[in-house]
Amino acid sequence: MGRHRAAIVGAGHTRFGALEAGPRSLLRSAVDGALGSVDRGVDRAPIREAFLATLGFGGWQIGNASAVLGEESGGAGVPTTRIENACASGGFALRAGVRAVHDAADGLVLVAGVEKMTDLTSPRRRYWLGVSGDTEWERLAGLTFAGVYGLIASAYAARHSTAREAMAEVARKNHENGTRNPNAHFRKRIARADVLAAPRVADPLGLYDCCPVSDGAAAVLLAPADRAREYTDTPVYVEAVGAASDRLAVQERPELARFPATERAAAEAFRDGDLRREEIGFLEVHDCFTIAELLALEDLGFAPPGGACDLTLSGATSPGGRLPVNPDGGLKAKGHPIGATGVSQAYEIFLQLRAAAGDRQLPGVETALAHNVGGAGATATVSLFRRG
Amino acid sequence: MGRHRAAIVGAGHTRFGALEAGPRSLLRSAVDGALGSVDRGVDRAPIREAFLATLGFGGWQIGNASAVLGEESGGAGVPTTRIENACASGGFALRAGVRAVHDAADGLVLVAGVEKMTDLTSPRRRYWLGVSGDTEWERLAGLTFAGVYGLIASAYAARHSTAREAMAEVARKNHENGTRNPNAHFRKRIARADVLAAPRVADPLGLYDCCPVSDGAAAVLLAPADRAREYTDTPVYVEAVGAASDRLAVQERPELARFPATERAAAEAFRDGDLRREEIGFLEVHDCFTIAELLALEDLGFAPPGGACDLTLSGATSPGGRLPVNPDGGLKAKGHPIGATGVSQAYEIFLQLRAAAGDRQLPGVETALAHNVGGAGATATVSLFRRG
Predict the structure, then answer these.
(1) Which ipTM was obtained for this model?
(2) Chain A residues lying within 8 Å of B148, measured CB to CB
(3) Interchain pair A84, B63: CB under 8 A
(4) B126 in any annotated domain
């Protein structure tokens, strides 16, 4: 869906990690950060509508939680909607927010995501993550979420001999990137050898192939595209937000190591947005497991099947390469507070395209793509952005 | 939000009640019913996007459940989004669906709601309902959902002497209406005296003041307003869907017996829709408890504070009266499968405005209003409809 309807004019982000703060104050910090980042005009432009992306909030307010976002965004009262599409909640909330801007013509639309996961006991966490996959045929049969991705990685590695090494490089690169992101959960360098030697989680995936369980929140403020310059000289336009779904259970899909939902969401985005793949400056992709970054590069059309291994091992996806991927550390190192992730990707893109990303600034990027996946590819969004 | 963007061109509905079917097959029945109800052109107009309203699906697939709707609506693949705003999920899903129609110009947008509640054990059910109110300050302090409405009813009754009798009349009328709705959970007449003599649930509310715990699903198909006649000669236009939120905890609001979210949602709907209150043919309001129907009449602006008692006791809200309310039996008698309720209201309106409501058809209605509340007024939608 469609061209140049909305622009991001502000964005906020908490640290990701095991945090003291609860989901309510995390939300407030992200929203305050977003409001504070708007260059001008925000006093006369109140928030007119708000969308909350969350899988389970903090485990306690799992119903009607969007009203909390209303409370924490400067006065209850505006329409608030909770969007829940598992790990893709943020991307779908962005899609909803973009559609809402024209009903908020004289104000702003808030899109925020939050999760508070580290308070949950380990079985509840597994339950939470498990429900993002198919419950009837996967979770209740004993398949964990890491297990699904382990199966996918096995299928992929059986066909592509450098896959294991490329997955290790994804982890190394994203950890390296995380060291330059003050909000990242992990800011620790690791070597490929560390990844390969780590304890197994779900073979062939080891500890360093998996994103952490994180708390955190992120928020962006959207204005109608034609009014964006009332708020800033450097808006970031949302060219398109493509979205798609797939069968929930991976066993019902023809192939394991391919997410047709990503392909379809990308097709919609490139159909509706005024950008070609060759023009994309950098990518934020959904690397919940290292294998997922490889799949993303292929499903998004930036590499042929198996080609993501060479692309990654060649250094092309590093910050100095020709197609940087996850300069903020990705889910792998930045962390993955589920509902916040898709919004956090938009935050990173907002910073990078305004040349405000500090130590991790990519030189001269003017466009970007964000890719957000729910479960093991049952829902997905692909969004395109361009500097104003 | 917005005038004449979308029209309902098809609608489906399962029975509401304690059903054998699971949430997946309930959804399928409602969607098949909706597709089957479209007069023409549905073969060449596939569903382009789908929205699922649900609080907890069936208790098992609580994450990423919208992908199931994709599967059950004729082929996985389309963008699917779960909207969760507690009991107002359906109303907010309709709002999202209306906004999506222009991205589906050559096809249809599906809005479906479902809940499967009767399988849940009683504590899980209480938990589910409790999370729709405030968890930190209400649920964990021991206040049940019926308890919140009991407090509201007490506050209201303390000011309005005929309140108790009027609540009993709401129950009597809605049960009477339910006898004419083949999909209703309760199809049994009751007298006001039965309501007054029933065991207390949360004083002053008795058993017959409370809606039942129900299973069920409902679905509507939306087309862009300007293409609605490709599908039917009798579309029902969505004039506007207003929405609002409020503080989650009732203790943080200035008054108990008033829902400002309803007032604000109505203000938006009447601002954006091309209809005045005097023109509304009938109402579908959110009567989760009998007191809620009285509040709705006042908050929506159809009666002054306290005036809902006289309006109700005068018979004006009965099918033969000047402002019929809940001709399908309402949540009270039709049942309240949470995510399905807001969509079910649109289904009833689709039938009534096309003069297809059978035994319960209201004579000559051309316009209607639907009112959907999340929790005890923390979120609300008000939608306006007009016969094409």
Answers:
(1) 0.97
(2) none
(3) yes
(4) no
